[in-house]
């Protein structure tokens, strides 16, 4: 089961007024969706919510919602922040079963940029997507999708079908869709891409 437990309370007041009242009480308002029960207005202590958020394992992961003696596996799909102070102001949770297959977007990260032939020659990383949508069991959502740039030169592409995914995860996009490529930058075209300065700029 999930590592993170969110102790929630049901909000009696809904709408803008109820959300504002929750924030004044140092709680983060949210809504629980999915399943036969329909949407339920909830709230979580702000300090506890921040602690869960900063683990990096809240958004897009299976977590446990606890209300009294009841527990329910859920997916946190969205958190909204205040534009000035970055305080979490609202969140959305979706009811799921641990083995249920869901669609969810997983972030893309890169490694070995420093030894990529294309990057060392001044090439630029051209990202078509920052996330890839997967169909995956709710309990097996990967933390991220890592793309290795170690052997990528200018003109090289990585397609959906090239991604290293868990055996039970399937991308929703076609296998020939380009995720990322290394393209020639001005530095590479001018022949200055081999310098340390050009590599740093890339």
Fold topology:
Layout: E1 5-10, H1 15-24, E2 27-33, E3 40-45, H2 46-54, E4 62-67, E5 70-81, E6 88-95, E7 101-111, H3 117-120, E8 124-127, E9 131-137, E10 145-148, E11 157-159, E12 170-171, E13 178-183, H4 186-190, H5 196-201
Parallel strand pairs: 1-4, 2-6, 7-10
Antiparallel strand pairs: 1-3, 2-3, 4-5, 5-6, 7-9, 8-13, 9-12, 11-13
Largest sheet: 6 strands, mixed, barrel
Q: Please name the CATH topology of the largest domain.
A: RNA Polymerase Alpha Subunit, Chain A, domain 2
Distance from N terminus to C terminus (CA atoms, Å) equals 42 Å
User: What is the N-to-C succession of helices and strands?
Assistant: EHEEHEEEEHEEEEEEHH
Query: Helical stretch count?
Result: 5
Output the radius of gyration: 21 Å
> How many separate domains?
2
Spell out the key features of this protein.
17% helix; single chain; 202 residues; 6-stranded mixed beta barrel; Ribosomal Protein L25, Chain P; 5 helices; alpha+beta; RNA Polymerase Alpha Subunit, Chain A, domain 2; 4-stranded mixed beta sheet
